[in-house]
Amino acid sequence: xxxxxxxxxxxxxxxxxxxxxxxxxxxxxxxxxxxxxxxxxxxxxxxxxxxxxxxxxxxxxxxxxxxxxxxxxxxxxxxxxxxxxxxxxxxxxxxxxxxxxxxxxxxxxxxxxxxxxxxxxxxxxxxxxxxxxxxxxxxxxxxxxxxxxxxxxxxxxxxxxxxxxxxxxxxxxxxxxxxxxxxxxxxxxxxxxxxxxxxxxxxxxxxxxxxxxxxxxxxxxxxxxxxxxxxxxxxxxxxxxxxxxxxxxxxxxxxxxxxxxxxxxxxxxxxxxxxxxxxxxxxxxxxxxxxxxxxxxxxxxxxxxxxxxxxxxxxxxxxxxxxxxxxxxxxxxxxxxxxxxxxxxxxx
Length: 348
Ligand SMILES: NC(=O)c1ccc[n+]([C@@H]2O[C@H](COP(=O)([O-])OP(=O)(O)OC[C@H]3O[C@@H](n4cnc5c(N)ncnc54)[C@H](OP(=O)(O)O)[C@@H]3O)[C@@H](O)[C@H]2O)c1
What we know:
alpha/beta; Rossmann fold; 15 helices; 48% helix; 11% strand; globular; binds NADP nicotinamide-adenine-dinucleotide phosphate
């Protein structure tokens, strides 16, 4: 049996695939290159959700690989502590924070303006911040907070930073050398990477039900709907923006032992944790890092990944059938009208 066939079989089994076994088997199966063998010197990475769990582990890797790292965080004290820790452990002083609550559009706008002014060329933008709210929470504008945090804000942030991302592929060598932010590497497409979840397999795309009604609210279903929307939007961005400028990827990290999962799904953590089946945050961040650094990730756009392999976005006919062009167009329109940001025709 080929490695790809073994992997595909593993993916269908779900529990072993998503657990710590999945990544440990696949890393041996494929003989993955070590992340430490890559360099991000001269590249600017903007990362959300870097103060905990998977994002925190990823931030340490980005810093160690030499990136100029900009973390977007809502809590100024936590952000400063994380910046200090990253500088100390990596010896990399190009670590910065920008403060924004991603449940608030005004703060997303302010953060995007600050970033565009200070870092006009962005090579990697990572939408990692996310949460599962067992009790419904609402953003300042009244929208369900998981939808705001994981669907609307990433859409808006990508849109507002589009020119900085495109600059990664268009900046010429003379400009690069004049700019202290960048060393003399050649222009490459930027990468926008969205941390979704395998939970999205359980929900289909229905834009009119993107936000659950209060009377039916279930945190896990609401979370999965937002995560499904993220994966579909990732494909839609890839159709709308040329891959020579920006490539888009989404992924699911498997089941990872983080403060987020322990709080949201305590029973799940209690059962799988002691069995050693939850991934470490480093393992949870592996594919995210790999998509950020490996040249092969520049060859495709719009894919959904798990353990360094592109995966199908559907595991059931129900979700496959619901994902129609009309639903997709409604989702894009919802994002544009909800955030007030529209993709200019010149940006394509
Ligand atoms: N852990 C898993 O098994 C698993 C599985 C599938 C997908 N994921 C996804 O992976 C990503 C990271 O999850 P995790 O498990 O590492 O969770 P986590 O430990 O709870 O970390 C979540 C991060 O998001 C930030 N965040 C939350 N709400 C925010 C807001 N309104 N504004 C700005 N930042 C906000 C948090 O900031 P604070 O530190 O300020 O709270 C934190 O840095 C999420 O998108 C999650 O859905 C995780």
